[in-house]
Amino acid sequence: MVDNVLLAQxxxxxxxxxxxxxxxxxxxxxxxxLTPELTALLAERVAEDEAADHDGYxxxxxxxxxxxxxxxxx
Length: 74
Hints:
By secondary structure, the protein is an all-alpha fold. The protein has helices at 4-11, 15-28, 36-51, 60-73.
């Protein structure tokens, strides 16, 4: 379970700092327990995340508001 207070503090950091923190956390995890396949999968997921358009995401709250507004006008 994630410590919500800690997560809230992390979310206050700018994107570059959060990426650095992610990398530090990843580096602190013992890689002995990871299979080569899992290591490759994690690297792929990290690359996908770094390439993602984070500014283009819509929050769930915003999406729900749009859906409700569309229902009212339909």
